[in-house]
């Protein structure tokens, strides 16, 4: 097995990448383990790198060392190769995907990683992109899209930019008119503040939007929140963050939560869509669950939350 570590030097502001690289070298140097460290040079670089490494048909694990965006790039490249599996060493800002596992601190343990096993996990196919975590539209996706407007302001950090962008979007018109079709046979429509099609349960640095989602249950969890007043949003955001919004009496008339295999979202205007935190624009979006489509490297001692993972063939 080849172990290839793909490090995004800008993820999480580059705080822990050099420590990860030195841990990899001190553990694996002079051992009979074939390994390599690669630093991405630009957004999208991981894809061509994975392609180049997969011309060799021997089994390989690509460890995405970064946040969910780096993982998203690596899975979308590796999904084309049956001899490739994907792991993650979290060093991004949010790292929401690893929250779907028990003992997730072990993702940072190189020894646990190289002695791990490959398991099958689900992914969502959103148009031609694979998502391992959460696809979201609405107010918070718009905030992610508008962050660039604040990045040029001196002395503002990444989270400062996001807060400014959230305030900017709060002042603009809220609510998107959408029609949502689940499994081709259940339709709901209205004006929504936000909506998610989720494989994992969390996004946005810890918002537990789909508290019932499991990454190997063969279904998509859908959660749509109707438009509400700005005042009400401020009072209820905490409940959405900690995943208690499904039990919150004050929210019960505002939320549609379902499990399904396909989702179609139809809008009159173009919609900003975040797929694992990466930005796309669509008018009509189709999602489908692709069960057991990801060969995932599970570090030793880590288990998938909720149900027992199957071993890959
Ligand atoms: N060398 C690079 N220079 C600039 N951008 C890069 C480079 N390598 C990868 N990227 C891009 O950096 C972006 C951010 O990466 P990532 O999402 O992993 O980190 P993060 O935003 O800190 O973490 P999280 O998504 O968990 O909050 C991704 O869109 C990725 O494609």
TrEMBL record:
Looking up PROSITE patterns in the UniProt record yields: DAGK
Q: Which organism is it from?
A: Sedimentibacter saalensis
The family this protein is said to belong to: Belongs to the diacylglycerol/lipid kinase family.
Required co-factor(s) are:
Mg(2+)
Write one Gene Ontology MF term. Answer: ATP binding
Q: Which UniProt keywords apply?
A: ATP-binding, Kinase, Lipid biosynthesis, Lipid metabolism, Magnesium, Metal-binding, Nucleotide-binding, Phospholipid biosynthesis, Phospholipid metabolism, Transferase
The DAGKc domain is annotated at 1-130
Name of this chain's protein: YegS/Rv2252/BmrU family lipid kinase
Q: Give the GO cellular component terms, alphabetically.
A: plasma membrane
């Amino acid at each position: 097995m080849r172990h290839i570590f793909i490090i995004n030097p800008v993820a999480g502001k580059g705080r822990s990448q050099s420590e990860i690289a030195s841990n990899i070298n001190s553990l694996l140097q002079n051992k009979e383990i074939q390994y390599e460290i690669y630093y991405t040079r630009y957004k999208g670089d991981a894809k061509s790198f994975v392609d180049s490494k997969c011309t060799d048909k021997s089994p390989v694990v690509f460890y995405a060392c970064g946040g969910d965006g780096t993982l998203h790039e690596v899975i979308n490249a590796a999904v084309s190769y049956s001899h490739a599996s994907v792991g993650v060493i979290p060093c991004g800002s949010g790292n929401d995907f690893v929250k779907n596992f028990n003992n997730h601190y072990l993702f940072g343990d190189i020894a646990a990683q190289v002695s791990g096993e490959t398991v099958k996990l689900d992914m969502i196919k959103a148009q031609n992109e694979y998502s391992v975590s959460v696809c979201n539209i609405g107010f918070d996706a718009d905030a992610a899209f508008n962050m660039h407007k604040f990045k040029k302001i001196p002395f503002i950090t990444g989270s400062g930019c996001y807060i400014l962008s959230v305030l900017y979007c709060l002042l603009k018109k809220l609510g998107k008119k959408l029609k949502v079709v689940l499994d081709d046979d259940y339709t709901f429509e209205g004006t929504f503040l936000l909506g998610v099609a989720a494989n994992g349960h969390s996004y946005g640095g810890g918002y537990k939007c789909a508290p019932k989602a499991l990454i190997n249950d063969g279904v998509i969890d859908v959660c749509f929140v109707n438009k509400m007043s700005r005042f009400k949003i401020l009072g209820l955001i905490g409940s959405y963050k900690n995943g208690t919004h499904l039990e919150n009496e004050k929210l019960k008339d505002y939320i549609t939560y379902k499990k399904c295999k396909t989702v179609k979202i139809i809008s009159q205007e173009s919609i900003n869509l975040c797929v694992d935190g990466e930005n796309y624009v669509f008018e009509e979006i189709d999602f489908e669950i692709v069960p057991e489509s990801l060969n995932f490297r599970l570090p030793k001692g880590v288990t998938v939350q909720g149900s027992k993972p199957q071993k890959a063939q």
